[in-house]
Amino acid sequence: MTLTTISSQACHGGAVSVFSHPSSTLGLEARFSVFQPAAALRGESTPVLFLLAGLTCTHETFLQKSTIIAHAAAENLMLVAPDTSPRDAGVPGEDESYDLGSAAGFYLDATNSPWSDHYRMGSYIASELPDLIRTALGQTESRFGIMGHSMGGHGALIHGLRAPDLWHSVSALAPIVHPSVVPWGKKAFAAYLGEDAGRWAEWDAVSLLDSGKRHPREILIDQGMADQFLAEQLRPDLLETMAARKGQPLKLRYHEGYDHSYWFIQTVIADHVAHHARLLGAPS
Amino acid sequence: MTLTTISSQACHGGAVSVFSHPSSTLGLEARFSVFQPAAALRGESTPVLFLLAGLTCTHETFLQKSTIIAHAAAENLMLVAPDTSPRDAGVPGEDESYDLGSAAGFYLDATNSPWSDHYRMGSYIASELPDLIRTALGQTESRFGIMGHSMGGHGALIHGLRAPDLWHSVSALAPIVHPSVVPWGKKAFAAYLGEDAGRWAEWDAVSLLDSGKRHPREILIDQGMADQFLAEQLRPDLLETMAARKGQPLKLRYHEGYDHSYWFIQTVIADHVAHHARLLGAPS
Fold this sequence. Notes:
With 284 residues, chain A is of the alpha/beta class.
């Protein structure tokens, strides 16, 4: 597997690196960021936590703005931050709006033309990138953690529910929980999956729970109550109701005064790292 | 004093805000960022730490990338991050190079035309902005701390040495210590202050020490040994030699493998916050 190092910089005893590789899933070159704690640089296998960012973000955003690295270094966790969509796929209009196309891949596999050729972040997250982390970066762990923000929170929830054996720990920050019924999700799913909403359920966290999917371990979600997208786009109450009905362990915390930004994320990020470190059995 | 709130967002129990105001010193509208810990939002006076960023940065950079806020919140410190230059001053060529003009004000008062009308960050940092923090943000502290990175490290050092009664605690990350003898400094000083290098000493940390200026408390400096600007632009060894000769208390630490970036800054930032909190007598 060809992995090109774009950059590598020391940080908290480890290194923050950007890698590029030809993705067979996406049919394009793809970039991702990694934080390797000191132990990983020495060749030891460490627990791995995937970080999925939201609309308008790149593979760089989460590591730059969340302040997660200090906590990950202390817990001996490797961090993997994929991009939020394929890039330069050549789909007409892919750069025209912030909520469809570039930086808005929704971590699913498009089935609808013209998106279906390259917009396959679903399989990229579920299979190709975890395999690459193991083969190219010396990780022997079979189980990873997954966390995300907003559209990336949606990604963490659906991937966690679809493959709980791979994604051993799951958490989300201000996630979109039921894309099938909110404007961002309806726009993206109609484009990527087609107008038939019956085919949307497999990429929708509330619908997955409703269909019987369940994660055996508690999912942690933090949500700001001054989040400008709370009532229209995020709707964590819908997940809470479905989780209670289906017996999904869930810890959903609301935070008065906090909005949708990384200023909120950094306020609660230590608890998320602790959640994943505990479930992944990280030696700290 | 007219202070316009551009944004204000909850973070770590306090708030990150961007303010704009008509600066009489600069003759232009100016922006700065502030982190107010919870106590400050309740109207209590707290210790204040100024953060000066480097070339190409804005008033937003230090708070977004340094991960300092969690530490400041824990120590009950207010943070003030000014811009790195006047903006839209209308000087011909001010946006043409990264190391002169916009985002390259060098925290001094230009005396040379056409820069001298607006490029007066020296007095802005020394006087107008501290006064504004007291009058508009309810701070009663007479003494502040000052810290900076690269060009901002130069700023922290010169202001600390020029006014040690105001700037009670001083630290720097990868600072330019002797601008009069390095390419970045020579280019900027020649433009802002004129070709007569005899007039540069009052804005140069090593020259200030040489002329008898001294800060009564230990200055903390951290420097990465893989910093791409170390040998040509930064030269902390020159400060170390002069500090030893003049009896300036200095703790200069070198860090193997670290470069000039905010990945390095975030690795050592906790120690800088502790340094200032201790000297400023912050209740923690």
